[in-house]
Write a structure and sequence with these properties.
The structure holds two protein chains of two kinds. Chain A contains 13 helices and one strand. By secondary structure, chain A is mostly helical. In chain A, α1 (4-17) runs antiparallel to α2 (22-59), α8 (209-225) runs antiparallel to α12 and α10 packs across α11. Chain A starts with a helix and ends with a strand. Classes of the chains: A mainly alpha, B alpha+beta. Chains A and B meet through α6, α9, α11, α12 and β1 of A and β1, α5, α6, α8 and β6 of B.
Amino acid sequence: MDQLFVNLKHSILIFAGNFLPEWAVILISILISVTAIAVFGPVTMMYLTLLERKFVGRIQNRFGPNRVGKWGLLQPLADGVKMLTKEDIVPKGADHFAHFLAPVAIVIPALLVFAVVPFGRNMVAVDLSIGILFFLALSSTTTIWIFVAAWASRNKFSLLGGLRSVAQMVSYEIPMVLSVVPVLMVVGSFSTVAIVEAQSGWNWFVLTPWGLIGFVLFFLTGVAEVNRTPFDLPEGESEIVAGFHTEYSGMKFALFYMAEFMNSFTISAIVSTVYLGGWQGPWLPGWLWLLIKSYALILVMMWFRGTLPRFRVDQLMGFAWKFLLPLALLNIFAAGVWLAFARPVNYLLSAIIVALALFILYFANRPDMPKKRVYRYAVE
Amino acid sequence: MTEENLSTLATQTLEVSLGPQHPSTHGVFRMNATLDGETIVKLKPVMGYLHRNHEKLAEDMTYLGSMPYTDRLDYICSMTNNFAYALAVEKLAGLEVPERAEYIRIIMAELTRLVNHTLLIGFLLNDLGAFFTPVLYAFREREKILDLFESVSGSRMMCNYFRFGGVKIDFSPGFLEGVKSIIQNYPKFLDEFEKLLSENEILMARCQNVGVLSKELAISAGISGPMLRASGVPYDIRKVDGYSIYNRFNFRVPIGEVGDVYDRYYVRILEMRESIKILAQAVKEIPEGPFISPKGAAGAKAPRTFKPPKGQVYGRIEAPKGELGFYLVSDGSPKPYRYHVRPPSFINLTILEDMCIGNKIADAIVTLGSVDIVLGEVDR
């Protein structure tokens, strides 16, 4: 079971090798990987929308979509048809080419990062030696297309959303990269496959003190990176209508959603790869483990969406620069201490450092934190 | 770049028209905001998109004829609108109200206060970006009260239940049981709501010290209702006037200190708890007897014979949103010579710019939400 998809691809290639030259077989191998990703990505996105609507519906004491197909299972298809047949409106003053390019281009990095996600043992499209770097670099290019969309729409709400998005990306990219550094130090490689291999036998990085902090940091900054609640300022509905995609309709709008949901999936998959042991796990096949872990993180994101209000833009920046960034730096120090000492001692030392860091940052940030109030009543 | 260089940079302000079609302006309200980055430097409220000629229409109708129209002023609290109008006309015509009718009126008014404040808090959270979860739970509780309204008046929102000198009809036997169950269950709902929301870090950070309204400004601008009390002025018309039979009930008036959005939020929650106290007392003490005075009943049967003596009158109540007053001039005919409404949300809205300047655009939305406007009443 574990090698199901790997063996499937292998047997296709052997079959093709019987009557095709070698270069053609290599081409087919690439094509199979690409097709798998190109199908898996959008299908994941389609059903994530359904999952989100169902899950948030349950949080909100209602059912969610249940009319199209059993349990609304065909709802994503109906939505797809609706999106495709909708009128495509481009504002009069818009930059037509950029307005068209942005939603198309935004999907590309979202699909490309699937290449370095190790879905299971031997199940990675490309085992890049700089896998994590590739992921971080590509996922941050999404912001460029968000800004292009905002600029090209020639709408003030879009512009505000685009500017918010850029500011947010600049702030959150730094703690995000820094939060992965401890893992890279311990593993000694950028390759996602190597990172998973290093966590075999329940040595998940999340079970160490620095790993726990790193996991939380990476996940939070990841949520901010894909613009989801409570960091969804670029599309803050109640303030700037729909932010950067205010002027998009039909399939272009759907493409933004596709990029957002695929990014949420890949960020969850990468977080589970880096900190939760990736496809490692007992009994079940590896690819199933990765899916379980990723979906668990996605459900946490949806849980955020269903329950949390939104940050304000200055608070968002303050949170990144005053809390996440110093914590990420101190976390790197904790990981260094972990590497420098032997087994039982290092656990204790890095735990102490992490606890101290949290304690200090909590008190340093205390003046900015809101306070509880006591109310009185008018005297008769 | 140094501080000096920054100040010589040429920057432009951005003019944004929030509304009349905007997800968070609570209807067809419009704010013309001038932004410097995300900070508001100027804000001009534009209203009148929902103007329906309410006052002039009423001058061409019998006194009773405009009772259903008052439902449409603040369409969330039709009962209190009826109450204020009935009170003014009774003052004009010198009508007595039987004991039982007074109790029924108080029960209805306090239930309306619960409805209004519950909804407001839900929508305020929505403005904060909490994606409909609080508002749907608020709706769930509101439904229970609307069911009671339906049982007495036949309509859930447009009740048209009050008559001059009493109420339209006595309530059905199950009604008091329904009120009792609300008295029992509402505090539980409020406790849950508060536990989940009031001390939420994001909510506190977003609401505290935002949209501050000073005591002096609040008084000089004629602000009334929970907004005035949140600014620290202990002024409640139920206490000051003691209209109807409010002076028989034992309740307290919660007041805030800072006058920010958080105070307005919290004062309303505390007010709901006081309303429940009033309800409990009213349900316990309600006497048997007629629900409308004979003179009033005759007037309700034949509205054209209802001719108040010449004179003018101003009747006011503490509506959930503030001081709701009706100014009537009678020339002895069956129609009012002059009919004027003093709507609380309109007057409370005049101060919006003073509260918003210097804050972020996201704060303006929240501040507007905390003012608690209903466009039906603002524009009439």
